[in-house]
Write a structure and sequence with these properties.
This protein is an alpha+beta fold and 425 residues long. Helix 3 runs antiparallel to helix 4. The strands form three sheets. It has an eight-stranded mixed β-sheet with strand order 8-7-10-5-4-12-14-13. The protein has a four-stranded antiparallel β-sheet with strand order 3-2-6-9, with no helix packed on it.
Amino acid sequence: MHSPLRIVGIVFVFLIAAAAWLGLSGITHSRTNDSSAALRGEVGSLWGRPQSQGAPRLQFQWKTMETRTETVEKDGKQHTVTKKVKVAHDDWRSPASTKVTAALSEDLRRKGLVWYPLYDVDFDGAWTYTHERPESGWLAIHFDFPDQQGFYDGFTLVVDGVDRARELTPKNGTVTFRMPVKPDQQVSLAASYKSRGMDAWSYRPASGVASLEDFSLQLTTDFADIDFPSGTLSPSTKTQQGDGWLLDWTFDRVVTGHGMGMVVPHPVQPGELATQMSMSAPVSLLFFFVVIYVLSVLKGIDIHPLNYLLVAGAFFAFHLLFAYSADRLPVEQAFALASVTSVVLVVSYLRLVVSTRFALVEAGIAQLVYLVCFSLAHFWDGYTGLTVTILSILTLFLVMQLTGRVQWSEVLGRRKKATPEPAAT
């Protein structure tokens, strides 16, 4: 009943199921990528893209009269000519102080198998500039919008108390205002707008390494799960406010090339989750088969490889149903539907093959542990490997305890033949 040939049949069933899951994971991965590639641009054009707001670029421009000596040829002779010419100069300056506030409100949208972490941002910044050079000239204030294709509701650009936004025309995503400045003059600048973006928002104090003085950035969120983009500074302080946070970056003087920002959280991606669950499904089926086989040996139950094949099909039905319902239902409802369907298939079938008690207790509990709970671990990123490790150890312990006294040579039909007694004379 439990011959080596039967074990080979069970292994063959397992390999067939593993191949089916491999194909399903490839199909789900392709569906997710195709959907993401097709819809991301559409969502971005409708809602916005990742935004990285930079500080105003301050360009001081002035001209000087300089004496230039040139050699010219006239009447076949070389002549030295001295003349005065105007020479243009420019010097890129940094703000003397920065006070920025930004409020992020998440607005998650799902299309197909992909969630898109969208957000609304309310930006308000104020800067000052002190003209410390001895020359008089012109100050060009360049304000770059974070996304040339984005929209900016209620945009203002206030210079020394006067809103200049209406008189400026954006060019290549930048508006520029020029004003005369003289030594020791102080200029105040403020900008504000409301916009929309996706994935992450950040503020860049400078295009490279810069010295920031009297700097303050306050960022508020209406979500609790906060994370920071790579290459950005962590906040000086963070305070929980209601369902979100108040994050503060304050420096008296710091030299840095990093920005500050926030990654908008998003729920579990249905497509990625379905792919990962399908790829790891053979592990859960292997554990289930081992436990069921050991129990069949201990209880003397005859379960044929064809029975294992149909049980494997019920396991596969879980992942198949989840993969094609997760883009129609909330992911939690799709998971519950797939779990109930698969458990009902296995329990109702083994009730006929073995017994109602075996189907409900031994097989039912094993399926809940190795299929449902194992798949549920994929909802928490980073815990899948730990779950596999724990289940492996517990399964090994269970099998060792249950089979410690089993004589496998007898179970597998390798019992020694008794030595024949000599014939009577």
